[in-house]
Amino acid sequence: MKKVLIELLILLGIGGVLWAVFAIFIKMPERPTLISIENEQSIGERYANSILQLNGFTEKNDLYIDSVLAVTADTLKNIQDDAKYDYKFILVDNEMVNAFALPGGYIIITTGLIKFCETPEELLSVICHEIGHIEKRHVVSRLVKDIGLTLLTSNDPYVSGEIAKELLSQGYNREQEEESDLFACELLLKCNLEPRAMASFFRRLKEKNENGIYDNFEILSSHPNMNKRVKNVLAFKVPDGFTAKESWINIDEMKKRVEQ
Amino acid sequence: MEFHPIPQPEEVSEREKQDAMGAYLMMFATTALGLPLPIVNMIASVVYFFVNKSKGRFVQFHSLQSMYSQIPVSLLNSYLIVWAVYIFANDAAFTNVFWGLLITAGIFNLFYFIFSIIGAVKAYHGRFYYFLFFGKIAYIQAYKIKNETEVKQQQMNMPPKM
Description:
The complex is a heterodimer.
Chain A: H1 2-25, H2 37-54, H3 63-78, E1 88-92, E2 99-101, E3 106-110, H4 111-116, H5 120-135, H6 138-146, H7 149-152, H8 157-169, H9 174-190, H10 197-210, H11 218-221, H12 226-234, H13 251-259
Parallel strand pairs in A: 1-3
Antiparallel strand pairs in A: 2-3
Helix pairs in contact in A: 2-8, 5-9, 5-10, 10-12
Chain B: H1 14-34, H2 39-52, H3 57-90, H4 96-124, H5 134-143, H6 148-154
């Protein structure tokens, strides 16, 4: 009988050790999706144009802003050790304070957002938050869940049009928003920028919202529990002796350009 | 603890060998059916054991070994399926703890598969094959002499006293 017990313990031990070893050492995606990154990029490319057309957005092209956003895309990609996407910014001429991520690394930002941001760090915190949704694959997993893989990869123009409209009305869950907030803070810190800039952005956006000017901002609209998120951002730990550097963005110049 | 003597390969009938082998092979047949709910495999092996229980201790041993070794694997698979469904339904993250258990379960399934094939081949040849832990449990249950009546029944026919 003793041998039976020993063998049982051996089996349980092997199981426990294997579980612990794999849980600690194996790196697996938290949100595996059925779409490869290459496929996701082609979906994003296809929908980016449809979204602009179907939602009446006009793309705003300004050489200065475009170059700043290109530098931003490269800097934020290169600073990460394991960035999976190339970020492509699309600036649209719209007064809404808004930014949203599309599949495949596309980020749409409005001129209203640039006007609203008081510091470059605020703008970067929003951009980093959207990058968080992209890198953590929230965007594509949400679409696969809500729309389905077959419809998402469909070439039917009517279906694509409906999905393009749907893309803007989708929200993320609280956990995904908080994960992206944390991602944004960490990314800003890596860039030696003030990671808690997002808190002031949230606060002012909330005040704007309370004043009745509600822009359906994705970051804000999907989650009423804004106070908790502000608290989380403010509680983000920065290393001792951390001194924030100045960012590469001249927000005043950008504002001037979007006003033109 | 006393045990009934175990038969040698030539003492096991062809029918017993086939039924004993069936205990392992039946698991493969029900796998396709039980994939969405691995618990189906377990129910099938329990049914197989009770149907073949009366066909001798050799068949009993292999049926029990197949059934017992299937319990943890099926429970593990079922648990993982429920966990995965929960994650999908709540849009939660597949944590490393989940992946760790999934890979461990995969390894256990693979071993279970390999040992079941070995068990089936051995059973077909009238041989015994003991899985770690489950082999001993199955042997005890199939071959242990359970009470004194059984001992007496065993010794009813005695050689003549000289």
